């Protein structure tokens, strides 16, 4: 097995987790498969850099001395939003030579500034998608996915999405078992598929101010298979159905029905990805009642039925 070199770029104002998250994943893979990856870090002049959190990172070398890597990792952080022109020039020259060019969070801004995302589909942290689209109209920005792969270039969303993308690359290189072992050690999901939304329903919706409504949100998340009709939820909140529906939307920014639909879909997706449970059982525990009802929900939201979703996003082998 040929060793793959991973080079992480460091710069002033880098987000530390954008670097250390993926690096820890690749380092874990190298422990399980010795010699699989050689991890290096480099800054423009080889000098230490200060991260956004105040930590100081010491690179292995300068970018001018670094060989062209198999995987070039461009992290985000405040320093990536107005990148040093020398850094942009280096990425413009060396990025196309990398086997795979990967950005985490706002690292996509460096790739865009270098012209490497023109005509490509990409993503970044949700808070900067509009800015990236405005500054680089030649780039097709998709604000929803956890990560996007377009040819040899992969861009990922905010911070921990870099871990998801690194796990996906390791699964591609070394297999699911290795990626799963690393994920378990890091106590994270094996992977969120690239088309998984950056926000779960719980994150996308605002947390309600009033405790009865917060209790309803928790109840929905913990028991997606329960009776989650507006009438049942309103009774739990001790409100009339009409008052409850109006208050829930006002405080969360989402109707009760929409919130329930999102939670049930996410629950079913996790079970399809991470378990061997049958479609009928998943449809029941996720609150759909029947496989046909779940199939309709998946086709409407994702454009694919549950069985096909499982085939695409969960290998046949059971962990």
From TrEMBL:
Cited InterPro entries: Class_I_gatase-like, DJ-1/PfpI, Homeodomain-like_sf, HTH_AraC, INH-QAR
One Pfam family linked to the record: HTH_18
Molecular function GO labels: DNA-binding transcription factor activity; sequence-specific DNA binding
Every HTH araC/xylS-type domain range: 214-312
Keywords: Transcription, Transcription regulation
Domain of life: Bacteria
Protein name: Transcriptional regulator GlxA family with amidase domain
Species this chain originates from: Streptomyces violarus
């Amino acid at each position: 097995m040929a060793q793959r070199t991973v080079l992480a770029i460091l710069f002033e104002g880098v987000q530390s987790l954008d670097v250390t998250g993926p690096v820890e994943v690749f380092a874990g893979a190298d422990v399980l498969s010795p010699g699989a990856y050689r991890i290096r870090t480099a800054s423009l002049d080889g000098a230490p850099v200060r991260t956004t959190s105040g930590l100081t990172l010491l690179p292995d070398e300068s970018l001018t001395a670094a060989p062209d890597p198999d995987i070039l990792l461009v992290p985000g952080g405040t320093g990536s939003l107005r990148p040093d022109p020398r850094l942009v020039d280096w990425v413009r020259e060396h990025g196309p030579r990398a086997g795979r060019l990967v950005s985490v969070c706002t690292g996509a801004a460096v790739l865009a500034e270098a012209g490497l995302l023109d005509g490509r589909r990409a993503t970044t942290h949700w808070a900067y998608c509009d800015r990236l689209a405005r500054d680089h109209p030649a780039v097709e920005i998709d604000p929803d996915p956890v990560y996007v792969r377009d040819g040899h270039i992969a861009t990922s969303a905010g911070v921990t999405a870099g871990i998801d993308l690194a796990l996906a690359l390791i699964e591609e290189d070394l297999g699911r078992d290795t990626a799963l072992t690393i994920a378990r050690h890091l106590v994270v999901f094996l992977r969120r598929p690239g088309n998984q939304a950056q926000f779960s329903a719980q994150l996308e919706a605002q947390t309600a101010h009033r405790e009865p409504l917060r209790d309803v949100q928790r109840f929905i998340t913990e028991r997606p298979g329960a009776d989650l009709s507006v009438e049942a939820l309103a009774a739990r909140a001790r409100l009339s159905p009409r008052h409850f529906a109006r208050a829930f939307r006002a405080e969360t920014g989402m109707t009760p029905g929409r919130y329930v639909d999102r939670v049930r879909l996410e629950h079913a997706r996790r079970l399809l990805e991470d378990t061997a449970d049958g479609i009928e059982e998943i449809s029941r525990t996720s609150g759909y009642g029947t496989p046909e009802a779940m199939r309709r929900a998946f086709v409407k939201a994702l454009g694919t039925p549950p069985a096909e979703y499982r085939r695409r996003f969960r290998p046949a082998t059971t962990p």
